[in-house]
Amino acid sequence: MTFITHGATGAQGAPIFSLLHAAGHDTTAAVRDTAKIDGKAVSVDFDSAASLTEAYQGADGVFVHLPLGSPDQQVTFATAIGDAVAKARPKRVVFSTSGYPLALPDGSRTAHGILHDRLEKSGVSYAVITPKTFLENLLLPVTLDPARVEGKLRYPIREDYAISWISHLDMADIAVQLLTDNVDVQGVVTAGALPALLGDDLAEGFSAHLNTPVNFESQNPDDYGKLITPLFGAAGVEPVIASYHARWSMPDERIDESRSAQMLLGVTPRSVQQWLRDMGI
Questions:
Q1: Alpha-carbon distance 277 to 281, whole Å?
Q2: What is the mean pLDDT of the chain?
Q3: What is the pTM of this model?
Q4: Helix (H) or strand (E) segment spanning residue 273
Q5: What is the pLDDT of residues 6-26, one digit of tens each?
Q6: Could you report how far apart the first and last alpha carbons of the chain are, in Å?
Q7: What is the pLDDT of residue 68?
Q8: How far apart are CA 84 and CA 127, in angstroms?
Q9: How far is CA 148 from CA 23, 91, 200, in A?
Q10: Closest to 260 measured CA to CA, from 195, 165, 192, 190
Q11: Which domains does the chain have, with CATH numbers?
Q12: Angle subtended at Cα 46 by Cα 86 and Cα 78, rounded to the nearest 5 degrees
């Protein structure tokens, strides 16, 4: 089978590219710079439906997630991808929302919602994976180092705030299942831990893996923002801080179990301890 994988040099696409290649599939990375890929690659431009259409021609499956950008840029990307899918008509498309919502609180569609709608209208077989929050956020030095050195897992969520955490490794397992063995599953597939995890649950996983006591500490979002600003810059951090402030007014971030990967695919996400082990932490 032939597959096109977007983001094959990044956190989401790379493990999918690797799993498909390891399974013996004809796998091509769709990237801006083909020199960064050790394997088959095709250069694509997310602004160009023609470029994407050419890449998708004849593919059995395409994995895609929207690149980072302003809301307007992401709408442009979503429109180009949707147009390319409608024209090239690959046999299957799997799209990850990367944790972004399909709609805003006022009901207006985000770029991710626009692409979801375009895939639905295309008539092409598709699935949309909707994770909440990635475990890899906990690997930033500002979080991982205190857990290792001080036994304090600090993160800007309330102590009673439950999240259906998911790792990029689990996302890859789900995406590959949807591209290969479960092509009959259509529409939204939620991805994350069931039951959802509290901060204490995360700390317990770290404790078991590091073989030392680790306790969770709820962190002020602004304090967290100050720590990550040197890593991402003030402009990049501003929306992140805003998202964590918003979480303080939300009850939780639990996935819909009826549309979960556990229910639809029989895929259960790794425990925190297993994820840390598989990441080689």
A1: 6
A2: 94
A3: 0.94
A4: helix 272-279
A5: 999 889 999 999 999 999 999
A6: 34
A7: 81
A8: 16
A9: 36, 46, 16
A10: 190
A11: 1-131 (3.40.50.720), 132-165+192-254+270-281 (3.90.25.10)
A12: 55
